[in-house]
Amino acid sequence: MPPSAPLVDTLEADRGVTCVVGAGGKKSTLYALANQLERAVVTATVRIPPFEEHVSTVRITDSPQDALERTEDWPLGLVAADEGDRYRGYEPSVIDDLAAQVDVPILVKADGARTRWLKAPDEREPQLPTSATTVVPIASVRAVGEVLDDRVVHRPEEVAAITGLEIGEHISVEDVATILTSPGGGLKRVPDGATVIPLLNMADTPDLVATAREIGDLVCQHEAVSRVVITRLLEEEPVIDVLE
Which of 43, 121, 207, 213 is in Cβ range 3.0-4.6 Å of 125 for a Cys bridge? Predict the structure, then answer.
């Protein structure tokens, strides 16, 4: 697959249920994918900030299938409730039911990270539907070289437990690769049969691209990983490289 391939192709998001987890670009990934698809649903199993500017319309409903079947507006945002500064997503089982009854790509935010660049999930996370066909663990390449603390990392204690780092130590290429491929990190709760495609975001300079490739080379050695995508998600053409 060429590095210039559209994001939707590199993440196999033109069908089924694509779930993003991790930190450093989940929402940007969803919105970039929605922008490349003729028809798609953007939704969540966790809380998500308002995103009206990234879809044609957002509908707040307890009956997502009914709302989807009535819509002529694409891409469509579906959420369960308005909580003020956030929308509440659906239970994973609701996404499973929706996926079983409609033939539209479903893009799901299945994890939270509070705008940090790296994270590991706690015991409640991620909230992945069993119908997930692609799971995209995300990390920002900018985490490399930073100190392991809560300024850059969401749940630094969980990251420390997986990597062996101490709080206050610097994050390495190997540490980011470990988080993305750990059964307690990026691979946590991935349903059987789902494709795993880690994404390294914020490769905004040649040095960061080189660092992302170092991480990606390590991640690609894991048998569960299909490929690694390196991105600048805020660019019009976000895919920088694809490693297989």
Answer: 121
Q: Say whether pTM exceeds 0.70.
A: yes
Backbone angles phi, psi at 110, to 5 degrees: -115, 15
Asked if residue 52 belongs to a domain, the reply is no
Q: Is residue 75 part of a domain?
A: no
**Helices 156-163 and 173-181: crossing angle, nearest 10°?**
100
Q: How many separate domains does the chain show?
A: 1
